[in-house]
Amino acid sequence: MLVAKLNAHVAFEDIPNAVAATALFRMGVWKRYGRDSTSCGALNALVANKRSPFLDDLRETFESEGRDRLDALRDNQRVNPLFRPLAAAIVSARLQARKLVLDLQDHAPAQSTYWIVLPCVTVNRHAQDTEIVCGIYAIDSRDGERKVTYSGLGDDAAVYRIEHADDRLTVTDDHVGITRSARDHRKMVQSFVPSLPHDTRDFLNARLNQACQDNQNNSDQRDHQVRRLLKRVLRIHAEVAPVAAAALVFIHGIAPIHHASTIHTLSDPKIAETRARLILDEVYDQIGDLDERTTERLLELLLHKSDS
Which residues are 241's β-sheet partners? Predict the structure, then answer.
């Protein structure tokens, strides 16, 4: 058994001498060396819509699967501003844990393994820190199959019900108490990628056939021929039908699993081709490092010769 614990954190500070009409505490800000300091500073900057490279990476995670979770966090009608820092920390912990689970879904362990993945939020206080366990992922591969289940909070801050009473924080939503199977993102892609129109398919096949014919006239060793042809074929797909090609390489496990955070954007025609080409560019850059079997399998897929 392996246990992985992923933590976000949020500050909690009592407000001394607070009157009854005001909050008795504040979250997300506390005194450090006599001055107010945000905690977590990264999440505070993200919700405040500030820009920097690391915030852009975090923003991409919050917008994964085509969902704008930040919009809910910024809306005072959907998320109580008093609890906004805590809600942001919970969403972050959930999403970071999901990214790890995606990696584990693709990982082949050397021996029978049972993983427990815990998304948590540490509540930083002047007293002893406390912990909110947001959920539990269980990844069971002991019988040769990969079974992934989750129980706990969802990742939509708008539906969290947060209460503070007797110095205790309680967070619930409609997902709590329900155990469900984790989603298989590679299979999900098949549901929203449309088939190519006939004229596009005919044009693509003509380009691919010409590339194969040109490659046959070269006398290089077979491995060099395959890799050179694969590069040309991948470029043709990126030009003519990038969305279908990106979906294909992701479904068959050739595009890395970290693309699961953006693969769902292929359903949005406004950005689908741009995102798809980014995936194909990464696969293209890795062609030289692929083993011979994977190289030939990828070429067969892109030439529509595979029955898998």
Answer: none
CA-closest candidate to residue 135, choices 70, 79, 182 = 182
CB within 8 Å of 276: residues ≥ 6 apart:
238, 242, 243, 245, 246, 247, 266
**In terms of pTM, does the model score above 0.85?**
no
DSSP-H helix ranges across 76-184? 84-106
pLDDT, position 238: 92
Among 256, 252, 242, 257, which Cα is nearest to 296's?
252
The span from the CA of 246 to the CA of 279, in Å, is 6
State the Cα–Cα distance between residues 81 and 85, nearest whole angstrom.
Answer: 8
DSSP 196: P
pLDDT for position 220: 65
Helix H, strand E, coil C: the string for 263-303 is HHHHHCCCCHHHHHHHHHHHHHHCHHHCCHHHHHHHHHHHC
β-bridge pairing 114-124 and 2-14:
parallel
- Residue type for position 103: D
- Averaged over successive runs of 10 residues, the pLDDT of the chain (308 residues) comes to 94 75 80 87 93 89 86 94 96 94 82 92 86 94 83 95 89 92 80 79 87 75 82 92 91 86 81 91 92 89 64
Tokens of 134: 């947001």
Phi, psi of 140 (to 5 degrees): -110, 115
* Distance (Å, whole) CA 124 – CA 10: 6
Distances (CA, A) of 154 to 4, 90, 95, 135, 176: 19, 9, 10, 9, 8
Give the residue among 187, 121, 192, 190 at the shortest CA–CA distance from 148.
Answer: 187
